[in-house]
Amino acid sequence: MPKAKKDIYEQVADFVYETSIHSQTPRSGFWFLGSGEQSVAEHLFHTAMIAYALAKLVPEADEHKVMLMALFHDIGEGRTSDHNYVHQRYGRLAEMEAVKDISNSVPFGKEIFDLFEEEDKSETLEAKLVRDADQLEWIATLRAEEMKGNCKAKAWIDIAAKRLKTTPGKKLGKMLIKKHPDSWWFDAGDEWFVDRKKTDQKWKENRKDNQ
Fold first, then answer.
1. In angstroms, rounded to a whole number, what is the distance separating the alpha carbons of residues 8 and 44?
2. Mapping DSSP to helix (H, G, I), strand (E, B) and coil, where does residue 39 land?
3. What does the pLDDT average to over 174-178?
4. Which one, 92, 124, 188, 204, has the greatest CB density within 10 A?
5. How far apart are the first and last CA of the chain?
6. What digits encode the pLDDT tens for the residues 122-159?
7. Nearest CA to 124 among 94, 159, 166?
């Protein structure tokens, strides 16, 4: 007896539960790196943020398409798990088949598959930016591990940097390698880290003067 076709809301409910598994799916490269950990969901979110920023540096790029493509570029790994470079060298990653099955399970699946396939072919500007964002996310993650003392991370960063293809991707890669991962929030020369009360008082006084 053939299975009854699922109601559209049942399909979407299954999609919601399936995409939640990415937060429990580990990125396996850290097993070989020897330190750090990250879920596929964390990687997808951070890659999407980087892809969005890259698209802003390229006016002709479709930033919304870039964001969606980045969010879906590893969606199949909830079914296949993440395969690092060693695993991919010896084992077949059936991610394309997994994404086809996902796309057939939801009414909006064609868009997901088209985005995944475009990124996989890496021919369009948007796909190249997402590919670079994927590597830049890895570089940023490796840089954090390097600063924690992992002596292998630097060699891995150098390899990832060679994979960058676009001009903005290469420029951002150089800056990520140059800057300390804490530079966005920590400055040892900032008086606030020494005496918060003193600097908070100055801030209050300046705010009062500007009112």
1. 26
2. strand
3. 98
4. 124
5. 75
6. 999 999 999 999 999 999 999 999 999 999 999 999 99
7. 166
Within a domain: 64: yes
| pTM for the full predicted model | 0.91
In a domain, 100, yes or no: yes
Tell me the sheet residues that pair with 39.
26
Question: Quick check: 161 and 173 in contact, CB under 8 A?
Answer: yes
Beta-carbon contacts of residue 62 (< 8 Å; ≥ 6 apart): 55, 126
Band of residue 6 on the pLDDT scale cut at 50, 70, 90: confident
- Distance CA(58)–CA(64), nearest Å, equals 13
Closest CA to 143 of 156, 130, 131: 156
- Check residue 149 and give left, alpha or beta (phi > 0: left; psi -120 to 50: alpha): left
- Establish if 3 belongs to a structural domain: no
Q: Are 58 and 125 in contact (CB under 8 A)?
A: yes
Orientation angle between helical segments 125-147 and 167-178, nearest 10 degrees: 10
CA distance 70 to 51: 7
Q: What is the CATH number of the domain that holds 82?
A: 1.10.3210.10
Structural domains of the chain, count: 1
